[in-house]
Description:
Elements: E1 15-16, H1 19-22, H2 25-33, H3 38-45, E2 76-77, E3 111-116, E4 122-125, H4 126-132, E5 136-143, E6 148-158, H5 159-166, E7 174-179, E8 199-203, H6 204-208, E9 213-218, E10 221-222, E11 232-234, E12 247-253, H7 260-264, E13 288-291, E14 297-299, H8 307-310
Parallel strand pairs: 1-2, 3-12, 6-13
Antiparallel strand pairs: 3-4, 5-6, 6-9, 7-8, 7-12, 9-10, 9-11, 13-14
Amino acid sequence: MLIKSKRGWEIPESQVADEATFLNRRQLMKGLAAGSILAPMAGFLGSGTRAFGADNAPTADLYPATRNEKFVLDRPITEEKLPLNYVNFYEFGSSKNVAGPAQSLNIQPWQLKFDGMVEKEITIDAHDLIRKMPLEERLYRHRCVEAWSMAVPWTGFPMRALLDFAKPLSSAKYVVMETLADKKTMPGLSAFWYPWPYIEGLTIDEASNDLAFIGTGIYGKPMPKQNGAPIRLVTPWKYGFKSIKSIVRFTFTDERPKSFWEEIQGSEYGFWANVNPEVPHPRWSQATERVLGTDERVPTQIFNGYGEFVADLYKNKKGEKLFM
């Protein structure tokens, strides 16, 4: 007799966040920076939305991918329209209404560069790389630093498979990721006070963890442009700003990078950015979160509910600000 025990990441699929909510993540962050979060969010979710998908993606034939049943949820999947329209993508503007402007992003061709401490530097088209990878769908919770959350069906591949492709040297300690910075298609780059390009990083141990995921699609379809097409990071135990979009470069190094938001305000947005309800943001509590598409506030969980799978990554990090 097979007895299945429930894991920390397992939540009812009926509670996963819908696609449109997820797409406007970065715009909400801007609202927070301006000192307002709940009112703008309520107004947005009450307004009409438009579906901005990725029907013409060159890898459309790969979707939907088979769901990995290991990754289930304790809440309903968020309604698709929300993640597709409620998105933060500062390269296209500081509001959450960037789905329209993001359609100017040209994802064909899309060159990915692997450099730094690797056996051999590689440049490959992202769509060619995606076809080499073991695509699957995973249901993950998503927790924004702005204290809202959703549940999303991501398509992609384990980040460990990307490391196997890149072949970093044993001396590499970090992988640094960089977003496209194209002034011709990204009007937000005119905000010269931001430290473009958008940079994020993980330790090699974090990138090798089972939960670390390279996203190429959502809701059974290729990744929409506003959500980070054609390739992005998904780290469900960290605040959402760590999950960098529209990546063009992976650099392996033995020096810890300074990420985009850490460069802007290191006292509020650190390198680790792990979720912890007991560590407040300097300007608001992280104890609870608003589930997008509902009026419900629920308790936030340590490491966003994935602690039993990632906590050991940080057991020897005394003195580090792991939860901001």
